[in-house]
Amino acid sequence: MAQDKVKIGIIGGMGPEATLDLFRKILRNTPANKDQDHLHLIIDNNTSIPDRTDYILGKGENPLPFILESARLLESAGVNAICMACNTAHIFESDIKAHIHVDFISIVDSVLNELKGTFSQAKSIGLAGTMGVFSSHLYDEPLMQRGYKLILPTNELQEELMKVIYSIKQGCIKEVIDKAEELLQWYKDQKADVLIMACTELPLVLDYLVPPIPVVDSTEALAKSVVRYALKGFVKLPN
Q: Sorting pLDDT into bands at 50, 70 and 90, what band is 233?
C-alpha cells in the first residue's frame, strides 16, 4: 500500500456499537498482512447527535448541525472522504454534501451496489429499519426506480422493529434475538427475495443467529465501499 494513504472520516455515535461494527467490518474487508496495510481511519464518535428518527417524526432536535460539526472536524483533520454509520442520518445526505469539500461515501449507494452485485436476480426486496427510514422514504424511491417490488412492514411490525433497534442501542442484543428471528421470518413469509437491513443496529444480531432469508447488511455494504474508495476510488452506482 502506498505511503500517502487516503484518509477516511467516519461520523459515528449513531449509535456507538454500530460505529464499532463499521470499524470492525472495514478491517475485515481490507486486504492486509500487517498493521501498515490497513486504512487510515479517523472516527468522531459524536454521541451528542440528537436522535434522527425523533426529529423526522417531529419529536426532537434537528441533528444536522451536530452532524455538520463532526463533518467539519473530520475535514480539518485532513480526510479525503466522509461516511456515516447510520442509515436514517442519510436523509441529510444532500445537505452534508453541500457543506463539505471532500467526497461523501453514501450508505444508500453502497446498499444498492451490494444488492445489484450480489443479488442480481432478486425482484422482491424487504426493508427493515427505523420509522425515520420509512417515514422519509429513504430507500423506497431508489429501489422502485430500479424496478424492485418493495415489501414494507406493517405499522405493528415497525413498532416491533423499533423496540429491537433501541434495545440493541441499550446493549441488550442477546435479549432480542428471538424477536429479531421472528421479524426476519416475517419477511421470508412475505416472499421477499432479500432483506435490506437499513439500520446499522440490526446487523449486530447476525453475530447470534442465522437469518432465514438472504440479507444485505448495510454496515457491511458501507465497509466494502470505504475499502474500495481507499484502495481504488469509490465506484458510484449508475443511475
A: low
Same domain for 201 and 226, yes or no, is no
Active site residue 172: no
* Cα–Cα nearest to 24, from 89, 127, 16: 16
The pLDDT score that the predictor gives to residue 2 is: 44
User: 30-44: per-residue pLDDT in tens?
Assistant: 999 999 999 999 999
Answer yes or no: 199 catalytic: yes
Is residue 186 domain-resident?
yes
Q: Cell 447470534: give the residue.
A: 208
Instruction: Tell me, yes or no, whether 200 lies in a domain.
Output: yes
Q: pTM here?
A: 0.95
Q: Which of 134, 108, 132, 145 is nearest to 221 (CA)?
A: 108
Question: Tens digit of pLDDT for each residue in 180-193?
Answer: 999 999 999 999 99
Candidate list 67, 71, 86, 115, residue with the active-site label? 86
Task: Name the active-site residue from 105, 194, 199, 202.
Answer: 199
